[in-house]
Amino acid sequence: MYSLMVCDDEQIMIESVRHIVENEFDNVKIIETARSGREAIEKTLTIKPDIILTDIKMPGINGLDAIKEIKKVHSDVKIVIVSVYEFFEYAKQAVELGVSEYLIKPVKKERLVETLQRILDQLDAQRRKYRWELEAKERIEKMLSAVEHSFIYSLLFAQLQKNDIIRYKREFFDIKNETGFVFVLTFSKKGKSSNYEAKLGESFDNQDIYAVFKNNLKYRCKCIIGPVMLDRVVVYVAQSIDDLYQQRVQSISCLEEILHLLEERYNLEFKVGIGRIHNDNDIMLSYQEALKALNCNEGSGIVHIDDIAPNIYNAGYEFVELEHKLRIGLENGDVQRCLTVLSDIFRKYPNLYEQEHIHYRIIEMMAAARRIATENGISDNIEPGYYIKKILSCMSCEELEQICIEEIRHIACEISARKKSNIGKLVEKTNMLINERYNQDLNLDDVSKELHISPQYLSRLYKNETGENFIERLTSVRIENAKRLMKENKYSIKEICFMSGYSDPNYFSKLFKKHEGISPTDYQKQIQGGLL
Q1: Residue 403 pLDDT class (50, 70, 90 cuts)
Q2: Would you identify the CATH topology of the domain 438-528?
Q3: Topology adopted by domain 160-313
Q4: Per-residue pLDDT tens for 480-504?
Q5: How do 179-189 and 278-279 pair as beta strands?
């Protein structure tokens, strides 16, 4: 049902419109009438009709001035002017005000019915579009929630690479920075033991507590919130690395406000462990730190990993962090990063040769490094376990460090060389395909498919290695071919266009001029005139 307000100082006009509407439309109701511009403005403030049918000449404020005021508070209303005035200036003002129709009195019944029906069709279309947009928004919210949960699951099971994390954050969550931290939240009913926690997990998920927590947190910061898993929720928070201490204080303060609200409303107790801010490469470390802080939280409340006493934050855990960084460095063939991490290990544990458990952790670390080498196709002509045997037989910490440096440098250099070699081959193959097939309908997808890699990876790799993107290289080769054909003076510009891989001569001419500074025709004339 649509609402209509009729504004006219003549009662007979109002009654005529009422009669037509009641007899011709079952989905329109006249909800109000007005005899002046001021009355129309005041009534619009409260009733907000879908359609207003108004005269121009009325006592006090005229119809056009009334429309200006009405549009300020009800911009979506459809307005039809019915007036005896045919002045161009009035019609012009009506168009500027967004009036739907300008009818001249006396208006025929058929014309009024036709006009109102056209407006009703427009309103129907707008309502359908609005419903579709709401449904689409609801579907997107459900999809984003699933993606959000998928991100956290992948994070927990270490299935995300840096590029995947960046894509998730930028494409789905509009998060641009590449650093952040993880916190883990658990909850229990006040005064209840942990035996009830699994059941509480279901109630936490089914009630509105999770929604309140999620909405409040997302209002305060850019974050990705996981689902309720038994009694806990894992959250990734995007955060830059500036003043780390101040950021820690702000994070705790933000969570305290939200948790205080939930504790008061739902009679729950919460524990939170917060990890440090890390680069996306090492975000799994923040999750491990959050768990460590959570496990050291004996009561309810919030604990940051940096608040844990030194005797609790043990060397074994810190070693895991360094070992993880070393593995990432090896897999990327980053020689300098590997040697820096290795130096950190020996600097932080100067007496590790005397500590048996740390000593054996070094052996495990080196075995893992050798496994990474094997996975990357590196096979040396040395007996299995050669370096492990050397480590076991070394007589000092200095000797142990030297053996590890030698092995790690060798593996990182080999992986780096292999990566560069593979990249070089891919670039070489790409250039070969461009040179062979520039005169065909060639694009990045075709080449990437032939090389069995993704278009995105090929585009980034080619740009990094050559300094120009794929299409720039292809265009350059095609233009050089066109110039060569012009110098032969055998073909028309149109023929040269097709022979250079373009199907549209106009596009070819624009591209040629952009590349060379002159049009193909002028270039050909200069050749014929001996200027080139």
Answers
A1: confident
A2: Arc Repressor Mutant, subunit A (1.10.10)
A3: Alpha-Beta Plaits (3.30.70)
A4: 999 999 888 888 888 999 999 988 8
A5: antiparallel
Which of the following CATH numbers is that of domain 2-127: 2.60.40.1220, 3.40.50.2300, 2.130.10.10, 3.30.830.10?
A: 3.40.50.2300
Averaged confidence pLDDT in the chain = 81
Q: How far is CA 181 from each of CA 58, 62, 154, 290, 370, rounded to the nearest angstrom? A: 66, 62, 15, 9, 31
Q: Which residue has the higher pLDDT, 525 or 358?
A: 525
- For residue 224, which of 233, 136, 203, 290 has the smallest C-alpha distance? 233
Percent of all residues in the chain with a pLDDT value above 90, rounded to a whole number? 14
- What's the CA gap between 400 and 393, in Å, rounded? 9
Crossing angle for the helix pair 455-466 and 470-488, to the nearest 10 degrees: 70
Residue ranges of the domains in the chain?
A: 2-127, 160-313, 317-418, 438-528
φ/ψ of 180, rounded to 5, equals: -175, -175
Assess whether pLDDT exceeds 70 at residue 202: no
Query: What is the identity of the amino acid at 222?
Result: K
3 state DSSP class of 241: coil
* DSSP label of 489: T
- The first and second tokens of residue 358, run together, are 């740390």
Q: What distance in Å separates the CA atoms of residue 341 and residue 324, rounded to the nearest whole number? A: 10
Do residues 461 and 475 touch, judged by C-beta distance below 8 A?
no
Q: Is the pLDDT of residue 531 over 80?
A: no
